[in-house]
Specification:
Blueprint lengths: L1 E3 L1 H5 L19 H4 L2 H10 L6 H10 L10 E6 L3 H11 L6 E7 L3 H17 L8 E3 L2 H6 L5 E4 L6 H10 L5 E5 L6 H12 L6 E4 L6 H11 L6 E9 L14 H4 L2 H4 L2 H11 L3 E9 L7 E3 L9 E8 L4 E7 L9 E7 L2 E7 L3 E6 L8 E4 L14 H14 L10 H20 L3 E2 H6 L1
Parallel strand pairs: 1-10, 2-3, 2-5, 3-4, 5-6, 6-7, 8-12
Antiparallel strand pairs: 8-13, 9-11, 9-17, 11-12, 13-14, 14-15, 15-16
Helix pairs in contact: 5-6, 8-9, 9-15, 13-15
Bound molecules: nicotinamide-adenine-dinucleotide.
GO molecular function: nucleotide binding
């Protein structure tokens, strides 16, 4: 057995950033703030992204930026792997008005890496905007008044508390919360109830696989009716094991909600979309068979499953099947999706970015292969451009000032968690689990 601790896996970065009790770090130096010459020099170079103090002034005056787009100020809560991915995506949306003004994370190394990333992006673009203000906790970030939108990209088990604090904060902040919405159905429900009382706040759940070009293309094909009435949706994810995370939070069901919630909520969300129906019951078989068995954290061996088959029945009679394997690095594609209707069949392959569409009438000879791409994507990142499109979509909902609802709602978030919870329970109990059972339990 290998005894591992967070410090073994993440230590040694040697970045000299100190954080204590909500203290603000990485903030602008007063001498630069007060230096009129310096401010002008910086303003002259500020073609690509306005500084946060300018943004603050603009927001107060209700002005718009040089390209006629109102600046939307973002705060990122949790700047580990995914939080920094959000920083990068928002950087590529600066011409659309996105600007990261603050970040919050209790882990000094993550904050340091986020600020370092910001510096390298500015250097790359010959831009001298000040760094985002850095906080050790989300409450200080909210109280700073520095942002209009909060992106929650902290570990799954922290989503609930942070969501509730953002929703209850006197100052309204729009929210993009990473999947899964929360780790339990009870918490998801409480968030939904709280959000109902703040209709001025837009909340989007980060189920971004919907935006991957081949998946989006297949959704379009299905929704056009080309395949007829959808009867079967099969999603195979064959990939590498879970990555190492800060303090190894993803190694335990209690933190992540379990593999079928943490990872597979994406696929349950897609199944619901393709089936255009809600789930009724779930049967699953899965185990931890290969990965993480030689790892021990604070005396505990990880309990997250690394493979499963999950069957989902929907209320319109269609069926879904998930085939998950997390020790399948030897795969050409990470995701293979097949949707079969009573007229035809569609398939999507990621990362090949190919969609195939055929019909029963024309058979194999009639199968068409489409290369899926989305020219709007300016940054592919870790998820084939889907995070970029997710942000683009949310940004336009925000700019629509309430007339455009976020495309992935809290209810979508709830169902994707409920299907995962039902799958986890089914594995534990060895029987079908109804969605009603988990929604009302
Ligand atoms: N959309 C996707 O496909 C996708 C991919 C990866 C991760 N995620 C989600 O993103 C979230 C973060 O995952 P990650 O891979 O970046 O993990 P990570 O461990 O790399 O980063 C998490 C960061 O959050 C910080 N943190 C911990 N508690 C916090 C708190 N209370 N407030 C603020 N920050 C806190 C940690 O110090 C760390 O820096 C998770 O919810 C995960 O499920 C989504």
């Amino acid at each position: 057995m290998v005894q591992r601790r967070a410090s073994d896996l993440h230590g040694g970065l040697g970045v000299g950033v100190g954080v204590s009790g909500g203290r603000c770090i990485g903030s602008r130096r007063p001498d630069r703030e007060g230096d009129g010459e310096e401010r002008l020099r910086r303003a002259g170079k500020r073609r690509e992204a306005p500084s946060s103090e300018t943004v603050g002034e603009r927001r107060r005056e209700g002005e718009e930026d040089a390209v006629g787009v109102g600046v939307i100020r973002y705060g990122i809560v949790g700047v580990g792997m995914m939080g920094r991915e959000h920083v990068l995506n928002l950087h590529h949306l600066r011409e659309e008005g996105a600007l990261v003004t603050c970040v919050a994370d209790p882990h000094p190394d993550s904050l340091a890496l986020a600020l370092q990333l910001h510096r390298s992006l500015l250097h790359h673009n010959n831009n001298s905007s000040p760094p985002p203000q850095a906080f050790s906790g989300h409450r200080e970030l909210l109280d700073s008044g520095l942002c209009d939108v909060v992106v929650i990209s902290s570990p799954n088990m922290t989503h609930f508390e942070i969501l509730m604090d953002v929703i209850h904060h006197p100052r309204p902040h729009h929210i993009l919360v990473e999947k899964p919405l929360c780790t339990t159905i009870e918490d998801c429900r409480k968030v939904i109830e709280a959000a109902k009382k703040r209709p001025e706040i837009l909340v989007q759940v980060g189920l971004e696989y919907r935006y991957m070009p081949p998946v989006a293309k297949l959704i379009e094909v299905v929704q056009s009716g080309t395949l007829g009435q959808v009867k079967m949706v099969a999603i195979r994810e064959h990939r590498f094991p879970f990555l190492v995370k800060v303090n190894n939070w993803n190694r335990f069901n209690v933190n992540s909600g379990g593999t079928l919630v943490e990872k597979c909520c994406h696929f349950f969300d897609l199944m619901r979309l393709f089936a255009a129906a809600n789930p009724v019951r779930v049967m699953a078989s899965g185990a931890i068979d290969v990965n993480h068995k030689d790892e021990v954290y604070d005396g505990k061996v990880p309990d997250i499953i690394d493979n499963a088959f999950v069957i989902v029945e929907f209320d319109n009679g269609s069926r879904g099947m998930l085939d998950l394997c997390m020790f399948a690095e030897g795969s050409k594609n990470e995701q293979e999706i097949s949707v079969v209707g009573d007229i035809g069949k569609g398939e999507a392959f990621v990362p090949e970015s190919i969609v195939r569409v055929g019909s029963r009438k024309e058979g194999r000879a009639g199968v068409v292969t489409i290369k899926a791409e989305d020219k709007r994507i300016k940054y592919d990142g870790l998820h084939h451009g889907s995070s970029y499109l997710e942000h683009l979509n949310f940004l336009s909902a925000i700019k629509a000032r309430g007339s455009g609802a976020p495309s992935v709602s809290l209810i979508d978030g709830l169902y994707s968690v409920a299907m995962g919870v039902a799958g986890q329970l089914s594995i534990e109990k060895g029987r079908f689990v109804t969605i009603e059972e988990v929604l009302t339990g």
